Amino acid sequence: MVDAVVLAGSRNDGPLKDCSSVRYEALIPVGSKIMVEYVVEALLQARGIRRVLVIGPATDLTPLLAGERVSVAESAGGIMENIEVGLKHLAGERRVLLVTSDIPMLTPRAVENFLELCGDMSGDLYYPIISKDEVEIKYPSTRRTYVSLKEGVFTGGNMFLLNPDVFQKCLENGQKIIRLRKSPLGLCRLLGVGFVIKFLLRSLTLAEAERKVCQLLGMIKGVVVVSKYPEVGVDIDKPKDLELACKAMGFR
Length: 252
Hints:
Blueprint: E1 2-7, E2 29-30, E3 33-34, H1 35-45, E4 49-56, H2 58-65, E5 70-74, H3 79-89, E6 96-100, H4 108-117, E7 125-131, H5 132-138, E8 147-149, E9 152-156, E10 159-162, H6 167-179, H7 184-191, H8 193-200, H9 206-216, E11 222-227, H10 239-248
Parallel strand pairs: 1-4, 1-6, 4-5, 7-11
Antiparallel strand pairs: 2-3, 6-10, 7-9, 7-10, 8-9
């Protein structure tokens, strides 16, 4: 059994503000509920989840979500700061499931499958990817960002299983990567020319990408798993996504 942290602290100041005037994206209505409620419900119904902690606007969320197995803590800023808040509240846990609040189509079975793919959970960081084919079969109109690897074309998921003991190490090294994200030369130096060439030629394997990420994050034990559940990766970050979700969930 693991505890889950739902990250619901993103301000509604991007494309979705045209759909709703609420202050936070997690509060955007989807049918009769707000977006984050669907995520929390899926987690509570999934086998293997003990408790759910939501990090976001506490005044708005507590009346809707707080209960025997759900608690709410105030957002502290960006995603990394909010992860840190969640891990502090769950101090002492061996592994914690981190989930974003913008995947309202998430199902209990998708959560259970991810936990099953994590096996004995001996790794420090587990991250799901989903093939383009799986996404487009179920949601043909969605538009995701994909990466081409030797094994196929994949998009990333919106949940992680994390060993809290490695968070600070990952944070420090992750910030270096973020600082270099707009410097192709800097990224090439960081990643290695051979790695970049293989990526551009689409000959990079999943195992090679996994090893490189582990190295960049401080030699942690990271594991990439392939999920067959598109709901893990189809998030809501623009009006077309919200329209798709409402239609898929039977609200339009």
